[in-house]
Write a structure and sequence with these properties.
mainly beta, single chain, 304 residues
């Protein structure tokens, strides 16, 4: 009986023609499946499957709110294509290389959304190989992810300026107790190409209380649901410090943030789910007070 012990290398391996494994709608996903075996390997057929889907999940606070969710939270299938690359037979001992080509094509009703690894929304594409064996041998299987990018139309954004002071705060409990301060700045654009950094400047014009830290927080806002109701959850993707300690007054501090691959994607709004992004400029004072300005971002990808 064929068994794989722990620590033994997998007898199956994928080699994609593209080293980065990045594809677009209409591309051919090509490569080689490598099967390694010390002995001849009898099989009932070798099947290659390309799958792509959107999986949606509810946060703990949203479960039970709407029964309607359970229908709208079924995985959304984007691609499902199978190909028998070898008919039942026997592979010789050693290394067998089986070339493959599969067309990556969207369905008429659903586009190929870009790969995205979120908390409550996941968009994933993968290749799976299944080698069926006889009743007395263990089937062999291997899965590998590949990545899809979606190019939209070119858009241009405008510069955003902001000024934060006690009067502009929305959720200050007692404005009289809020120390006097003025934080000014700008974002070069709230519409960002996903492969370009978010840029701008922030400056502390004045602050009664010393500044402790200035941070940039990138947030994903994921919405799952349908017309009957929806669950919206905001979670942090990354947080970078751009100012440490009581920074100089009236000095421009550069804002520069790169969007992390896979954890961001072009802003997506569909009937069943949304993936949106925001950035928070956070100024922490040594008194423990925290001042935050929130900016919705629109992420895009397009060919120049």
């Amino acid at each position: 009986v064929s068994r794989m012990s722990k620590g033994e290398p997998s007898p199956l391996e994928f080699k994609f023609k593209r080293a980065d494994r990045v594809y677009h709608d209409g591309d051919i996903v090509a490569g080689t499946l490598i099967v390694s075996s010390k002995e001849a390997l009898s099989h009932q057929g070798i099947l290659l499957t390309m799958e792509g889907s959107v999986s949606l999940q509810l946060s703990a606070k949203s479960v039970g709110l709407f029964e309607a969710f359970y229908n709208s939270l079924k995985p959304i299938q984007l691609v499902n294509l199978s190909l028998e690359v070898r008919k039942p037979g026997k592979l010789p001992p050693g290394r067998t290389e089986i070339p493959f080509e599969l067309p990556l094509k969207s369905r008429p009703d659903v586009p190929l959304y870009e790969t995205y690894h979120g908390v409550f929304v996941n968009i994933q594409y993968q290749l799976r190989v299944d080698i069926k064996r006889s009743a007395f041998s263990k089937d062999l299987s291997k899965t590998m992810e590949f990545f899809v990018e979606f190019n939209g139309k070119k858009e241009s954004g405008k510069e955003l300026t902001f000024a934060i002071n006690p009067q502009s705060l929305e959720n200050a409990k007692e404005r009289k107790k809020v120390p006097d301060f003025l934080v000014e700045g700008r974002l070069d654009s709230a519409l960002c190409h996903i492969e370009m950094p978010l840029t701008g400047t922030v400056r502390v014009a004045r602050s009664e209380i010393p500044v402790k830290s200035i941070e940039l927080q990138l947030v994903r806002v994921e919405t799952c649901g349908c017309a009957e109701g929806y669950a919206k959850d905001a979670t942090e993707i990354q947080n970078i410090q751009i100012g440490d300690g009581d920074v100089c007054r009236a000095m421009d501090i550069p804002i520069y943030m790169i969007f992390p691959r896979l954890f961001t994607c072009p802003t997506l709004v569909t009937d069943n789910f949304k993936v949106e992004f925001e950035v928070n400029v956070v100024v922490m004072l040594q008194s423990g007070d925290m001042v935050t300005e929130n900016f919705p971002l629109k992420l895009v990808r397009y060919n120049e």
